[in-house]
Amino acid sequence: MVHLFSYGTLQKEQVQLETFGRILEGEKDILTGYTMKMVEITDPEVLRKSNQKYHPILELSGDIGDEVEGMLFEVTEEEILQADEYEVDDYKRIETVFKSGKKGFIYVGK
């Protein structure tokens, strides 16, 4: 299992069920050094799943005072690939360390 940090629509149960076929388990965590902006979603499938036209997107600030709260979910390697399919081309997946000291993946702006 690997960790996947969600600060947006992947926290919605409906999105999880449609993307992974299950409700994810995880715990709250904090990402430091990033801020959130919004990006307009045009992919019809993502719009249908999330029911949201604008999604949050992370941007590196480099300031450790900047924090983004979210959920750190445990997922399989296969589910990470399913999350990659869900996220639109504005995002890229990188690995980082969270305030808890755990390592995991986040989606940031390209």
Automatic annotation (TrEMBL):
Q: Which InterPro entries match?
A: AIG2-like_dom, GGCT-like, GGCT-like_sf
Gene3D superfamilies, alphabetically? Gamma-glutamyl cyclotransferase-like
Q: Which CDD domains match?
A: GGCT_like
Which SUPFAM superfamilies does the annotation name? Gamma-glutamyl cyclotransferase-like
Say which domain of life the source belongs to.
Bacteria
**UniProt domain Gamma-glutamylcyclotransferase AIG2-like: residue ranges:** 4-98
Any one Pfam family match given in the protein's UniProt record, by short name: GGACT
Q: Where is the signal peptide?
A: none
* Protein name stated in the entry: Gamma-glutamylcyclotransferase
